[in-house]
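Tokens for chain A. Residues wanted.
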């Protein structure tokens, strides 16, 4: 039955989703072990300094280094091929996400909210054919801020409200799904509802799921409780 004349259209709900630990099963990625496996042991002290003292991985994730610059400074001779090899062969895409997305992306506007090297995020979206599901992608390497900083959630709210032209629900009706309690606590401070995707067996008081089937059920229960 269609809407009656003059009735306001229902506002769109937003589902914020993390990449690593939610869509990708490895919650911390696998890149540091990958790198130590790909260099001789006599290079390991140098690599340790690059990661710990120089903070190269953090700089790349913050957008201060491109993927090519980051991988070149680590000593990889072919940065583009290294990126493709790591992201294609050493991370595990949760195939159940596709089932979940098909069931829910018309009811929610999916927004990716991820700490990542910007080129890596773009590659993963293309590799797994995820672009069709996401209205927006907010990536630390693009915006130079990262979870769990409070300012990334303030930025997310401002940005989505600015582009929505009033079609989105208030942030208090958004849902953020992440595998980190620290990230969820920061989102809650911004007034966003939160769900722990429990890859790492963390303790969380409310709204915890272990897989996308459970997340699907939880979201439907949230909608029913609103009616």
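Reply:
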């Amino acid at each position: 039955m269609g809407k009656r004349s003059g009735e306001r259209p229902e506002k769109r709900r937003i589902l914020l989703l993390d990449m690593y630990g939610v869509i990708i099963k490895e919650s911390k990625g696998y890149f540091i072990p990958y790198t130590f496996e790909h260099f001789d042991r006599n290079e390991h002290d140098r690599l340790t300094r690059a990661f710990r003292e120089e903070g190269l991985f953090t700089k790349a994730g913050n957008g201060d280094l491109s993927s090519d610059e980051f991988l070149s400074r680590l000593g990889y001779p072919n940065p583009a091929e290294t990126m493709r090899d790591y992201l294609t062969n050493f991370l595990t895409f949760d195939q159940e996400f596709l089932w979940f997305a098909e069931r829910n992306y018309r009811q929610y506007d999916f927004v990716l909210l991820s700490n990542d090297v910007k080129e890596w995020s773009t590659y993963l979206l293309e590799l797994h054919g995820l672009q069709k599901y996401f209205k927006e992608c907010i990536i630390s390497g693009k915006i130079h801020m990262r979870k769990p900083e409070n300012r990334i959630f303030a930025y997310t709210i401002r940005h989505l409200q600015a582009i929505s032209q009033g079609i989105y629900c208030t942030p208090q009706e958004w849902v953020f799904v992440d595998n980190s309690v620290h990230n969820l606590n920061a989102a809650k401070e911004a007034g966003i509802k939160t769900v722990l995707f429990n890859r790492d067996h963390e303790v969380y008081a409310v709204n915890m799921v272990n897989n996308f089937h459970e997340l699907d059920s939880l979201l439907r229960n949230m909608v029913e409780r609103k009616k």
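Confidence is low (pLDDT under 50) at residues 1-6. The radius of gyration is 19 Å.
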